[in-house]
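Form 12-C: Joint structure prediction
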Amino acid sequence: MSKGLEKNKGFILLKGGRFYEPFLSIDAQNDILIKDGIIIKIDKNIKEEKKYKIIECKNNIITNGFLDLHVHFREPGFEFKETIETGSLSAFYGGFTRVCTMPNTEPVIDSPELIKFIIEQSKDTPVYIHPIGAITKGQKGLEISEIGEMVEAGAVAISDDGIPVKNSQVLRFALEYAKKFNIPVINHAEDNCLVNDGLMHEGEMSTKLGLPGNPDIAESAMVYRDLSISEYVGGRLHVPHVSSFKSLEVIKMFRKKGVNVTAEVTPHHLSLTDNILKYYDTNAKVAPPIRSSKDKKALIDAVKSGLIDCIATDHAPHAVEDKDRDFKHASCGMIGLESAFGIVNKTLAAEKVDIADIINLFTVNPSRVINIVPNLIKEGNIAELNIIDPSCKWTFDEKSIKSKSNNSALLGQEMLGRVLFSMNKGYILDCKV
Amino acid sequence: MGKIKSILLNELEMSKMLTRISHEIIESHSEISSIAIIGIRTRGEIFAKKIVDNIEKISGDRVHYGILDVTFYRDDFSQNLGSPKVGPSDISFDINSKNIVLIDDVLYTGRTIRAAMDELFSFGRASSIKLGVLIDRGHRELPIKADFVGKNFPTSNNEHVHVLVNEVDGKDEVRLVQY
Amino acid sequence: MKRIETKHLLGLENVSSKDIETIIDVGFTFREVLERPIKKVPVLNGKNIVNLFFENSTRTKISFELAEKRLSADVTNFSASSSSVEKGESLRDTIQNIHVMKMDCVVMRHPIPGSCLQLSNYVDVPIVNAGDGTHEHPTQALLDMMSIKEKFGKIKGLNIGIVGDILHSRVALSNIFGLIKLGANVKLCAPPHLLQRNIEQHGVSVTYDVDELIDWADAVNVLRIQRERMGVGLIPSIREYRKFFGITSERLNRHKKEIVIMHPGPINRGVEIDSDVADGDQAIILDQVLNGVAVRMSVLYLLLGSKDFE
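Section 2 - Result
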């Protein structure tokens, strides 16, 4: 068992904390008493007893475990980068008790048998996995996969993430067919032709660095296409990892027309600009690319206004040999589970966003996208919660990483806010260890 | 619709004729059980039924009964092709080796009877076919003859014999109508 | 005097409900003919009917041929290969040859919608549509309605469901036109992408849930999954279609009332319908086949007699 991860046995009293449960609309000072991983009492002032292990929660917030709609756990097929076990641990360290895994593994998750495999593999981890199934068989973009069977087996959405659905008619079929099963379709919006082998955002920085550019329209044009189709057939689309202000304009326009669309943003798109690539740091090479300060500002405003619904890390582990290459040949992607809260809280707190709203971005908001509700924090339920210190200053370094890979562009950065403890499925984790 | 020239038969006369025809049919067949009375639509089948009832009253035997709709076998194709006023025939017994008596209300050109005989052959091979009609109005165009006749009424071509039966028209009557 | 108003049977959309009822009623008369030892009537003696099939069909073709022969008509069969259709070989050329040879009636099946209507511009004789692409298949709908009337004694007011690939189904469209005209309630069930967008404008309702359909319906017409008419991968797998839309006995047993099951054939056993359902008591599939010959006899009889004669 990992350092700091323990079975949640005996009595634990969370004392003096702010209890924020957005699903139940509770925001109050409350103590919480937990026994063997089950919440047995929530009250103003719970009397201490000798047998209780006390966790002092003064100035801390006790809230739900986080949900990440977008992670890559690389199993089956790429276990050298990450496994379901290591990915789950990494998630738990970041305060995530639930994650949605993307299907671009080997083999691709396009059948109910493989959905069940993923769920089986997560049984002994401290995290609940809600797999996302592929839109098309093998993610080849040609034939839609057994969506109904996958949903019945536990899939919560469909996506060919990593690859855009190029054939618009196939996307149309998927959006129509998915209506029967009430799940969102998540299309990786990048027109490969317009990307044109671009390696970073096409802008001032790419010119200076001499790297081929990936223009923002590669994303926004496809978001426009996707939403036009979705509007036409009355479907439900979720836009992953929005990176550009142009895409936000498109989403805003369609949402105004009443189209059912949700959107997510990654912590790295929210907190970084293409300046981070000044030294050709391959850890900052991601798809879609990190863009300009104008885009970053627009994304922050969108989070504040609710145009973007939630944070999703797009946790993308890559082995050292995949990243330790020239910029062209390095793999795209960044891990993000352990650093997510720290960097998002730092970025948004600076913009005077309230901590409760920040927590919503990790809890109720993503929950609404896939209609999955966690174990609510109430008496009798399994304890699925985080203890957060919103003002904790800490440095994100190798020691903070529990993933098998450590490809993060945020290494060495100062974070604000930290998940101190995570509890789920009868486990408790001291995240500072 | 034409003008009624005269009433040829009233209810009582029709009833007496049917009784007589029923006796004649029994008399002309040695084996009552081999007899089958088949009425030709429309109205022939009503008289046929009465004859079957009569035969039962007289002899105690209930002979076979059937209905023929000859629309598909008529030879006046152009005029009658596509007529929706067609109903199913109903011959639910085996006609092979039976002595059929066809019953129609009026015998005129004989073409209806020729069509009825052709249709009968699609059901099997009868031992014999005889014809019984209520009225024979002459003007045969084919070599057809009735074996049992209610009454002979010579008519001209611009006249028409209207047969009414209680079950369909509300009264039993035979009228001569001029067009 | 016209017996039925319509000169051709190109579809049911433009045929009056009165004509439809006449065709069905006369169809029952021809059912009786089909019970006789000699199942033949001489009504179309001397008439020449050409069966122009530009698309493969075994069952419809046999049914029409049987109907024509039982009416004593002379039958000529013309089967164009699919390649000549692909080459766009002129319909007009084929037809004008036939026209010159003085045929009395044309029964045509063609893969492109509207071909029968176009044909009626070149020939004068009655034309019967035996299926024009994804448009109409009127004789199928007529035999379906005749079978419904045979089973229930009426059509008006009944709840008739249709389940399957509605988008590509000429059987569905003709049934919708015919049933609505005769006063039935129609509900369609299909995967959402296999339904026309504005199908509800025809007075039908729609559901994606086949159990909801079964609960509502008096009879359900189960359409065949037409693999040859679809692009690649419209249905993810047979097991997926069967699980969510298949008429299986387990599904039927979950519902209290017994519904009548229909199918235009040929059946894909284990896909849209299970063998034990197709062969079971609730299905009237074989009656449909028999009614098919009878209703086609009725159509030909009524159309070939609909010329005006003084």
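Section 3 - Comments
The two ends of chain B are 7 Å apart (CA to CA). The helical segments of chain B are 11-28, 44-59, 77-80, 111-121, 166-169.
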